[in-house]
Amino acid sequence: MTSSSGLPRLSRRALLGSAGAAGLAVGAVGGALGQQALAAPAAGTGGSTGAALGRATIPFHGPRQAGILQPAQARVQLAAFDLADGAGGTGSRDGLRKLLRQWSATAARLARGEDAPSAENQIARDAGPCSLTVTFGFGASLFDKTGLTDRRPAALAPLPDFPEDAIDRARSDGDLWVQIGADDALVAFHALRVLQRQAAGTATLRWQMAGFGRTPGATPHPMTGRNLMGQVDGTNNPKPGQDGFEEKIFTGGDGWFAGGTYAVVRRIRMLLDNWENLPTDRQERVIGRRKSDGAPLSGGTETTAVDLTARGADGALAVPADAHIRVAAPGSNGGAAMLRRGFSYADGVLADGSPDAGLLFVAFQADPMKGFVPVQRKLARGDGLSRFIRHESSGLYAVPPGAPEGGYVGQALLD
């Protein structure tokens, strides 16, 4: 179902789900569709029921893949696969074509909430579709391995190294990328296991990461989520219908990738012990917003536009020169913008006892060389928040347009 603008129509249930769209604003722009979430009424008189959560569906088929424009769900599984050894060369296209056709059919079935075949592990047997979305992307290496280098999108080039990066290449990149979102952890994990088993013999799992956001209905009314630093995070994402939104998020032109987008994926560990030792007022100055309600230090409420020229009674800038929202602001970066769907993660503790926790950063954009790269370069040079985070894995993927009924993702490339 689409709106008059041609974008997928978001149900009340989907809007409430955007409370999970929290994510550290590394990359500049806030959580997905946050303002729509703030404006959405609560379902019924006491919030959404468990039954409503389970029944919510998001169609897999359409001009754009699901899991991009929709608000982030409560749970996510991110994974990358590599074509199996011996599957390289032009002959691998048949195997890749077969896999993507099977994956697309499976993702559509799971999104509808249909019963799993008896051959599948019954992990999610008792649950409904729970707003499940499955999004597929292609890494640069996929085009080389399949003899399609001449059809690789121009901006699908290695991301540059940034100061203070600590990238683990074993948990980065990959030929095929999958983002699975759902409002139930078992539903998301079940989908990943099904896709992984279907890939046997064609592609092997390279890395896997699990994340979470706020559960829909956990707050008395829809609110912007918070990240693991306790900050309200997700206020200023670009929104469908705004001037320039389509051009900044989706590619134009002709060819198989027209209407697609690029996904930058980063695993960003938060140095929570160091952060939590700061008094609240120092944390607020690092971010540039009040911790209590997310309002900018220049005044107003959460949704008030930040005034980067405002000064306090002492004459000092209200929003410090190295505050995250100042350095990351689109106005400070030539208008660069990304559509983020971030999730928190918590994977125990490291050898030194510090938390292995932070943000799974996912950002969609029409050109990462005009979106993520210039913003991250500026953040790496002058963002006060950089002292409290570490970028530990990275990937860039071409996310094709959606598949029509009866078709599969990537069909225009492979057929």
TrEMBL record:
Its main location: other. It holds the Pfam family Dyp_perox_C. It is found in: Cell envelope. It catalyses: heme b + 2 H(+) = protoporphyrin IX + Fe(2+). The keyword Lyase applies. Its cofactor is heme b. Keywords: Heme, Iron, Lyase, Metal-binding, Oxidoreductase, Peroxidase, Signal. Its EC number is 1.11.1.-. This is Deferrochelatase.
